[in-house]
Amino acid sequence: MTTEQASEPPAEHEPPAEHEPPAEHEPPAEHGRGPDGRPPLEMLLELQDLDTRIAQLQHRRAALSERQELASLTAALGDVTRRAAEVQGSRAELVERQQALEADIGATAARREALEQRMYAARGTPARDLQVMDEEIQNLRHRRDHLEDAELEVMVALEPLDAELASLDADGARLGAQAGHVRAALVEAEGELDEELAVQVGARAAVASSLPEELRSRYESLRVRLGGTGAARLVGSRCSGCHLELPSMEVDRIRRLPPGTVVTCEQCGRILVPTATPPAA
User: Fold this and answer.
1) How far is Cα 274 from Cα 259, in angstroms, rounded to an integer?
2) N or C terminus of the chain with fewer C-beta within 10 Å?
3) Mind spelling out the 3-state secondary structure of the chain?
4) Counted domains in the chain
5) Predicted structure pTM score
6) 198 part of a folded domain
7) Are residues 116 and 179 in the same domain?
């Protein structure tokens, strides 16, 4: 408000000129003191400290080393599971091939045995027919040898797959056990932080409910807009919100204002509360 006064009273038909208070400060907010008699701006700083603490706890909860370790173990276990599925697929194809070869070998052996029995039991069979049967028996013998070689190749190919599957099963069991231990540790760590968060959130609710509605609403709006910090301390000539130095004349003006006057930092727009020392860690 201007300190100058008009030398003559305004004309009766002209209403007195109205002036808005400067944007950088507002009338004292002494009304709405807390139950312990503390002024609203002091409680506002406590509310900001609680919000900062809550944000830190939430960040710690999200960044727990157990959570990161569990994510790593889960990813590794997923890789093992996918590789095991691939090996199982390759092995299933080889097993199917082996079963087909075994069936072919069995049919070839049965055919050869039947022909041999016919030859031994044949009496009065023309020599030409016996020769044809003998040639077929030889062909069946060669075919069986070829099929058995192919089956042996399949069995050789199965050995490294079986070994890899056994190794993957062991890796999966080991990773699963580790993940179980880490998951239990994560639940315990989260529980401890959740308990502390509940205490801080309860304290915040109590402080917030004691603030004047207008001051609380303004703080909440600034906090959302300015990255979680709606109120800052003026320590010396520095704003603890934006960490910038204020001009000495501005600092002197702020410190001369009536106690409880709501002031905003001209650099960042946060509610600025003059204090002698920064908050305790």
Assistant:
1) 10
2) C
3) CCCCCCCCCCCCCCCCCCCCCCCCEEEECCCCCCCCCCCHHHHHHHHHHHHHHHHHHHHHHHCCHHHHHHHHHHHHHHHHHHHHHHHHHHHHHHHHHHHHHHHHHHHHHHHHHHHHHHHHHCCCCCHHHHHHHHHHHHHHHHHHHHHHHHHHHHHHHHHHHHHHHHHHHHHHHHHHHHHHHHHHHHHHHHHHHHHHHHHHHHHHHHHHHHCCHHHHHHHHHHHHHCCCCCEEEEECCEECCCCCECCHHHHHHHHHCCCCEEEECCCCCCEEEEECCCCCC
4) 2
5) 0.67
6) yes
7) yes
Lowest-confidence pick of 20-34, 47-61, 105-119, 125-139? 20-34
Quick: pLDDT tens for 59-75.
999 999 999 999 999 99
User: Which residues span the domain enclosing 240?
Assistant: 212-275
